[in-house]
Amino acid sequence: MIYKDDPDSIRGFLEDTSNLKSGRTPGVFFPESVDELAGLLKSAIEEHRCFTIAGNGTGTTGGRIPQGEYVISMQKLDRMGEPIALSPDRAYITVQAGVLLEKIQKKVEQSGWFYPPDPTEKLCFIGSTIANNSSGARSFKYGATRNHVARILLILAQGERLNLSRGVCRADRDGFFRFSLPSGREMIFKRPGYQMPETSKHNAGYFSEEGMDLVDLFIGSEGTLAVIAEADLLLTPLPPTIISCLVYFKKIEELFSFVRLLKEPANNISPRAIEFFDGHSLELLAARYPEVPDKSAGAIFMELETTPEREENDLDTLFGLMESCNAMSDESWMALDRDEQERLREFRHALPLIVNDWLSRQHESKISTDMAVPEGAFRELFDFYCSSCEQRGFVYIIFGHIGDAHLHLNILPRNREEFIEAKALYRKFVDKALELGGTLSAEHGIGKLKVEYLVGMYHECGISEMARVKKYLDPFLLLNRGNLIPAAYLETKTH
Ligand SMILES: Cc1cc2nc3c(=O)[nH]c(=O)nc-3n(C[C@H](O)[C@H](O)[C@H](O)COP(=O)(O)OP(=O)(O)OC[C@H]3O[C@@H](n4cnc5c(N)ncnc54)[C@H](O)[C@@H]3O)c2cc1C
């Protein structure tokens, strides 16, 4: 197996996009087969090693940044099969964990299939998107990654394989999972005994609900319970025609009315993505895209799947809704062919890059939220974000997945004092979102950055439930230490 411990090879594994600076590791292993990966974990106790699992480093929460552990890079596990049709409207593809999401999407599209999860950043490994239950714009229609995974091959902490297909092992009425490993070892444990928030997206802590599938415990567990080595991904037919558009509004109230109309089934329009840019985001984008109109209070990016036969009808409906909400129709951007849609996609992707550029000139990290609340509480959280930032005179932007009542607020501090004040304000945002029945993280997960806040969400008993499951599956705490569960709950605390 390839092993590297020279500083040049290690450096890249000490970071992701979180700006967490505390990474350190003795070295990085690059298993080239599932057998090598299993062997590495089997010998972990004997060799006194524990591991942090590394995908491609686009995560935002420091999940893959080691704190002294060895690193397992999934980079060389990059084999991918061919799409296999199960019926005219269903197929699957088998992929190893280190395949880039972008490669999978391109490959399946060549044979007329579609893999819906699209967490904006395409340069992530598929195994990480499963470990993080990634979502993104299209999850408004398709839901997060867990809806699209039919099977996972896991390597448990001590090297045993667990090949799990959906539907094979479910929690019983009392919440217990019962299954045996290839070695014959019987496994019995109970799902975490807490209730998840009623938000349309949620990605904070282990998934748990009545009668749940064991596959769903591992999806979104952020590498704390096992290494995902391989998966079967479900595919649907590639939509023949897409309508994409960016619609500007002068007044924020009219923008919100437009979103309500887009989500109303009676209006005969069912977008796959409804995304928001506030006026501040548009001001930043205007520096690179002069066509962004002045004095726009915000914009909605929308994507709709249609057919050549239905396209005209759908466009008429869309224009009607825009008109009824006083959209800035003349300035709005309709993208009806692939090239134009790619330009519009680049526009959306430009925002985080512009923000990073801006920050690199300020020498401070941004403070960003990933909370979501139930639909009815959306406006209260939005207004709270705006008024809190305005009062303090912060530079900030709000953008993201408005269809799922899930917006990202980024505060961009200009100096240390602002950073400290913004960090204190972040805690108030968390408290507010939780008070409104929301979730600490709708999609980016907890990693190392948000561990302290997770206790506020699940309280001590909920975190202890997670720790119980972790310690059953990984009793020697070999995998992804420091992620998700505060260390104190794994070492000494019992409740
Ligand atoms: C500009 C930008 C936009 C983004 N937008 C979105 C978005 O809209 N929605 C969204 O959900 N995310 C978004 N993300 C976050 C990110 O892309 C995802 O979290 C992605 O899944 C990380 O993939 P990665 O390969 O880079 O993983 P890494 O950052 O390397 O690792 C992420 C975590 O996964 C664990 N892990 C990796 N591989 C495995 C494995 N095989 N088995 C078990 N655990 C593993 C790691 O230990 C770590 O905890 C965005 C990121 C950026 C930079």
Write a structural description.
The structure is a single chain. With 495 residues, the protein is of the alpha+beta class. The chain has 4 domains: 2-73, Uridine Diphospho-n-acetylenolpyruvylglucosamine Reductase, domain 2, CATH 3.30.43; 84-237, Uridine Diphospho-n-acetylenolpyruvylglucosamine Reductase, domain 3; 241-435, 3-Layer(aba) Sandwich (Vanillyl-alcohol Oxidase, Chain A, domain 3), CATH 3.40.462.10; 451-491. It contains 14 helices and 19 strands. The chain has helices at residues 7-11, 34-42, 101-110, 126-131, 139-142, 214-218, 252-263, 279-286, 311-324, 338-362, 378-392, 416-435, 451-473, 487-491; strands at residues 2-4, 28-30, 51-54, 70-73, 84-87, 90-96, 113-114, 149-156, 161-165, 176-180, 186-190, 226-237, 241-249, 273-278, 298-306, 333-335, 367-368, 396-401, 406-411. The strands form 4 sheets. Strands 16-13-15-14-18-19-17 form a 7-stranded antiparallel β-sheet, with helices on both faces. Strands 5, 6, 7, 8, 9 and 12 form a 6-stranded antiparallel β-sheet that branches. Strand 10 and strand 11 (186-190) form a beta hairpin. Helix 11 (378-392) runs antiparallel to helix 12 (416-435). The longest helix is centred in the last third of the chain and has 25 residues, at 338-362. The radius of gyration is 23 Å and the shape is globular. Flavin-adenine dinucleotide (FAD) is lined by residues 16-17, 52-60, 63-64, 74, 97, 119-121, 124-125, 127-129, 131-132, 134-136, 222-223, 227-228, 352, 443-444, 447, 480, 483.
